[in-house]
Specification:
The complex is a heterodimer of chains A (about 700) and B (about 230).
Chain A lengths: L1 H5 L1 H28 L12 H32 L5 H18 L6 E7 L4 E4 L7 H4 L2 E7 L14 E4 L6 H6 L1 H5 L1 H5 L3 E7 L10 H40 L13 H4 L2 H31 L10 H33 L7 H25 L3 H22 L5 H36 L14 H58 L5 H32 L7 E4 H18 L3 E5 L6 E4 L1 H18 L5 E9 L2 E9 L8 H4 L18 H11 L3 E7 L2 E9 L3
Parallel strand pairs in A: 7-9
Antiparallel strand pairs in A: 1-2, 1-5, 3-4, 3-5, 6-8, 9-10, 10-12, 11-12
Helix pairs in contact in A: 2-9, 2-12, 3-4, 9-12, 11-12, 14-15, 15-16, 16-17, 17-21, 18-19, 19-21
Chain B lengths: L2 E5 L3 H13 L3 E5 L2 H10 L4 E5 L7 H8 L7 E5 L4 H10 L3 E4 L4 H18 L8 E4 L2 E4 L4 E4 L2 E3 L3 H12 L7 H9 L7 H15 L9 E4 L3 E4 L6
Parallel strand pairs in B: 1-2, 1-3, 3-4, 4-5
Antiparallel strand pairs in B: 6-7, 7-8, 8-9, 10-11
Classes of the chains: A alpha+beta (about 700), B alpha/beta (about 230).
Chain lengths: ~700, ~230
């Protein structure tokens, strides 16, 4: 299939075949047309040409009678002694010729002539009454002797069929005929005539010829019609193949347009129409000539060399016309196949150009408007509106209808514009507010917004997307950190569990060596310290990375400090530390997570126990004000604080450089992280040996 | 003679626990992942399970859920993650108690004893007439006696009254001032500190690990409460 479609030579061959088929169909058509005039009657005698031939014969009978009259006139003149011999001879010759032509041996024309009273004058029949036997249809006509023509028209033209009575008497009795002056001077004669039933065998005249032609046409018609049908079908089949294969080319996929498909379809059609018009013109002209051979000039069927030549020319023109039509069809089909039918029409191009021009124009106007600053744009619209209103009021007395309408339209437009802006602005405000509230997923639909606000909305959208990505990134990294801490904590704690357990088991076993007991004691101490360190480390990491859940609620700071002091009562007493509390009478409520806040206070009091100078006072003060609750813890350091306050909060930094005391050095760091996690501020001040911590928490309700 | 299943992927921890529990007179069965634990429960009678959370093949949480489908044997989770979420999840899924790693062997033994006592001798609802109870703590107001897991506890009158106040309103949080006013029958003026000290002593008497109380809970900044189920 594909091969057949892409076969170039085959296509060329089929095109030639198609032209040949149409050429042959043209020739067959010409021949068919020859037979057509004979095909209209079932009997050759009904042909118009037969009638005309009979009339001519009747005329020749009338002419014969005129010649008879001439002869008798000439004979009278001769008798009178005039020399008319030459003229007489000529008339005699003419009479002889005419009589000869009318003899039954030379023609199948049958006639009889009588006067209006029924007097039998002349006939070429065997006997007078044989006319009705020999002829199918009897025609009757009247002529005046001396006139060369039969009066064919008018009431004198009569025909009757066999079995009817001859109307001579009626004719003679008719008043206008009998009473006419002419009739009294020269009584008219009646001629009755027809064509013999059989025109074969014997005489050969024009009737024989017409009958032969009629027979020939009827004989040839079916085969010629068949030939036309066959060649036309063949040509159309070729055309179908060509259309099916059109647009394909050897070795190429899809439809390959040629230059013909690049020409505008309208131009192509116009050119083709011109060519076809010329061809049609030629066909009509030549056809007229061609048919003339047969039906006007009585040219013989054969023998004239120009007849076949005309046929060839006509057929060639027909084939050319069909070929042109095929070309048009081909290009249309290829265009449809390639999907460029619309695109290659001039109309489409023109419409497209116009659309583009309008688009460019609108763009230019839009660009112009866009480049006017927003203020001037607004001013222009408002100014235009005010001006139009002014004009309206100025002219409203003179022209009412149209101006009111225009003013109404302008008002409506301004109203809608203002509404549009207001709605857009509202959407923008809502979106920016929700963005400010932390809803990063809020997205503004920019399509419906006015151009000025749209840019703003797009900026906001971009901002929200950027923020969202940043937040997502941060959350991801925090989740990762939290997971890492959990896993590290697990991996550290599992071996530590075994160490602590087995040291404990060792402690419980009987030891003979005193040194071993000492060593086990050291191991136990260090294992416990390692445990504390690990726990603090995990907690510090969690607090500083924010991998902790914070459930904030309203709680009492005074209550919490009471509870904490209760927990630490024994430990403080053991260090001989006195707590001086300064607290408000009313409960100071803060917004915090109780467990985290406890850890902060826990660490602070723990620090006091660990690092405060024995026998001193610890000042615990709680203050309220400006929406904040401030807790301060002051104590005197046991060791000189040789570290700056800031550094004390760093991880693993402790007040004693030698690091002999218990503690991980993470307490303050954890406390600060936890405070900040709950939205508080953790501050540290060192003044000589005075160590002061201030925790500021937001006040609740 | 109780059979205790110890399940942990760290064999050293398992053998240490076997030594501790063995010395207390318990028979121990070892398992090194959740699947083995399930198998061991099928094969023999187990009275208590110590189960690690992070284990290969089948972790402790899933194994606990699986066990709870057809058994109410006490399960104590050993967790190294020390994440609050893990504890809550474990208790919700059906564990009876939890111990965080690294643990104190004595605490493990105490918790095992407590769970076994509740599981075997006391049964489910141990609250008699005229008695107040929360978890293993039972207070007989007529006899003015308090027992934890059946063992008598000696309390001072103030401690007794605080416990009675909290026990009669399980789950309710009392602030230090409220407790003071109700127990001492005096308006509280800055002496709430003493309440905290008493509660701490009380906690030391009735809780296995006072730093991580299961029943008498400190609600920081709000007060104290008794948690009836002993959960959280």
């Amino acid at each position: 299939m594909r091969k057949l479609q892409q076969n170039g030579p085959a296509k060329f061959l089929v095109s030639l075949l198609m032209l040949a088929a149409f050429f042959l169909a043209g020739i067959a058509g010409c021949r068919l047309i020859q037979t057509l005039p004979y095909m209209v009657t079932g009997n050759w005698k009904d042909l118009g040409t037969v009638y005309r031939a009979m009339e001519d014969r009747a005329d020749s009978v009338a002419a014969l009678y005129a010649l008879y009259q001439d002869q008798s006139t000439l004979l009278e003149l001769e008798a009178a002694g005039e020399d008319v011999e030459y003229r007489l001879g000529r008339v005699d010759r003419q009479i002889q010729e005419a009589e000869q032509a009318l003899r039954p041996e030379s023609t199948w024309f049958r006639f009889r002539v009588s006067d209006i009273y029924g007097g039998q004058l002349d006939t070429n029949l065997e006997y007078w009454d044989a006319l009705e036997d020999e002829v199918d249809l009897v025609h009757q006509a009247v002529f005046t002797p001396g006139h060369y023509y039969v009066e064919h028209d008018g009431e004198a033209w009569l025909t009757w069929s066999n079995g009817q009575t001859a109307p001579q008497q009626e004719l003679a009795a008719s008043p206008d005929m009998a009473e006419s002056e002419d009739a009294q001077a020269q009584p008219p004669l009646v001629i009755e005539y027809g064509v013999a039933r059989e025109v074969t065998g014997g005489a050969s005249d024009e009737f024989t010829q017409i009958a032969e032609e009629w027979n020939w046409a009827h004989l040839m018609f079916p085969s010629r019609a068949k030939a036309v049908a066959v060649w036309l079908t063949a040509g159309l089949l070729c055309l179908l193949y060509l259309l099916w294969a059109s647009g394909h080319r050897a070795g190429k996929e899809g439809i390959v347009p040629t230059w013909q498909e690049k020409v505008f379809l309208e131009l192509y059609l116009a050119a083709a129409a011109g060519v076809i018009f010329l061809i049609l013109w030629g066909i009509l002209d030549l056809g007229d000539l061609y048919l003339g051979y047969y039906f006007h000039d009585w040219a013989p069927l054969d023998g004239d060399f120009s007849v076949p030549l005309t046929e060839y020319a006509l057929a060639a023109l027909f084939a050319l016309g069909m070929g042109t039509g095929a070309l048009v069809l081909r290009t249309v089909v290829v265009r449809v196949k390639a999907g460029t039918f619309l695109a290659t029409t001039l109309l489409y191009k023109v419409v497209k150009w116009m659309a583009r021009a309008i688009h460019v124009l609108l763009r230019a106007i839009g660009y112009f408007i866009q480049n006017i600053p927003l203020f001037w744009r607004a001013a222009l619209v408002c100014g235009g509106y005010i001006l139009s209103t002014f004009v309206f009021f100025l002219w409203r007395f003179y022209h009412f209808g149209l101006l009111v309408f225009l003013w109404g339209v302008a008002s409506l437009a301004v109203f809608l514009l203002v509404c549009w802006w207001a709605i857009g602005f509202q959407a923008l405000r809502r979106a920016s507010r929700s963005l400010a509230a932390g809803e990063l997923k809020s997205h503004i639909e920019t399509k419906q917004l006015p151009p000025g606000l749209r840019a703003c909305a797009e900026d906001l959208n971009n901002l929200s997307v950027g923020l969202q990505t940043a937040v997502n990134e941060q959350m991801k990294s925090e989740r990762f950190k939290a997971e890492l801490i959990t896993n590290v904590s697990h991996d550290l704690k599992t071996p530590l569990t075994s160490i602590i357990n087995y040291v404990d088991l060792l402690k419980n076993t009987e030891q003979t060596d005193q040194k071993a007991v000492e060593y086990i004691e050291v191991l136990d101490r260090k294992a416990q310290r390692l445990k504390k360190l690990t726990e603090d480390l995990v907690e510090a990491s969690k607090a500083s990375t924010g991998a902790l859940t914070v459930n904030r609620e309203k709680l009492g700071m005074v209550q919490l400090l009471d509870q904490a002091l209760g927990e630490y009562a024994e430990k403080l007493e053991a260090q001989d530390l006195t707590v001086i509390r300064t607290m408000p009478e009313e409960e100071a409520y803060v917004y915090a997570d109780g467990r985290h806040l406890w850890r902060v206070v826990d660490n602070l009091l723990g620090n006091c126990c660990k690092y405060a100078l024995t026998g001193t006072r610890v000042y615990l003060e709680l203050k309220r004000g400006k929406g904040q609750v401030i807790l301060s813890v002051k104590n005197i350091s046991r060791e000189p604080l040789n570290v700056p306050a800031e550094q004390l909060m760093e991880r693993f930094v402790r007040g004693d450089a030698s690091r002999t005391t218990e503690g991980s050095g993470l307490g303050l760091s954890i406390a600060r992280s936890l405070t900040e996690l709950q939205g508080g501020i953790f501050e540290l001040a060192v003044d000589g040996d005075l160590f002061k911590v201030t925790v500021t928490m937001p006040q609740a309700g | 003679m109780y059979n205790i299943l110890i399940c942990d992927d760290d064999r050293d921890i398992v053998s240490a626990l076997e030594i501790y529990l063995g010395s207390e007179g318990y028979r121990t069965v070892a398992a090194y992942n959740g699947r083995q634990a399930l198998q061991a429960v099928q094969e023999q009678e187990i009275h208590l399970i110590l189960m690690d959370v992070m284990m290969p093949e089948l972790d402790g949480i899933r194994a606990t859920a699986k066990l709870r489908e057809d058994s109410n044997v006490p399960i104590i989770l050993l967790t190294a993650k020390s994440e609050d979420n893990d504890k809550i999840l474990g208790l919700n899924i059906g564990a009876d108690d939890y111990i965080t790693k690294p643990f104190n062997p004595l605490e493990v033994v105490a918790r095992v004893k407590s769970q076994l006592r509740r599981y075997t001798s006391l049964g489910g609802a141990e609250k008699g007439p005229g008695q107040l109870a929360a978890g293993p703590i039972v207070m007989d107001d007529a006899a003015k006696a308090v027992t934890v897991d059946g063992a008598p506890v000696a309390l001072t009158p103030i401690e007794y009254n605080i416990l009675k106040l909290l026990l009669s309103h399980p789950g309710q949080v009392f602030s230090s001032a409220q407790i003071y006013e109700q127990v001492w029958n005096d308006p509280a003026y800055g002496s709430e500190n003493t309440v905290a000290v008493h509660i701490r002593h009380l906690r030391e008497k009735i809780e296995i690990n006072p730093a991580e109380p299961r029943y008498l809970k400190v609600v920081w900044g709000l007060g104290y409460k008794i948690e009836a189920g002993g959960k959280k």
